[in-house]
Amino acid sequence: MSARQKFMGVVKGLILSYLLTIIMLFITAVVVYKVGISDKVLGILVVVIYIVATFAGGFVTGRKVRENFYFIYLCVIIPIYDIKREVYPE
Predict the structure, then answer these.
(1) Is residue 54 within 8 Å of residue 73, measured between CB atoms?
(2) pTM score > 0.85 for this model?
(3) Cα separation of 47 and 9, whole Å?
C-alpha cells in the first residue's frame, strides 16, 4: 500500500470523526434547548460523543491503512481524554 493511500485513509477517518462529532453535538444542542438537561449530564454526553466519534474515525483509519486500528484509536483517544480532564477537572 502506497503512502498516498495511507494518507487518504487517515483523511477519511478524520473527516468521518469530524462529521460524526458535528452531527451528534448538534443533536445534543437541540435536546438541551428543548429539554434543558443538567450540566453534569451534558458533560458526560460531550465526552461520550467525542469517544464514539474518535473510535469511529480510528476504526475507519485502521481499516483503510490496514494496520492495527486499535493502536491508532488509542493514539487518538489519549489526547482527547487529556483535553476532557482539562475542561472538566474533578
Answers:
(1) yes
(2) no
(3) 25
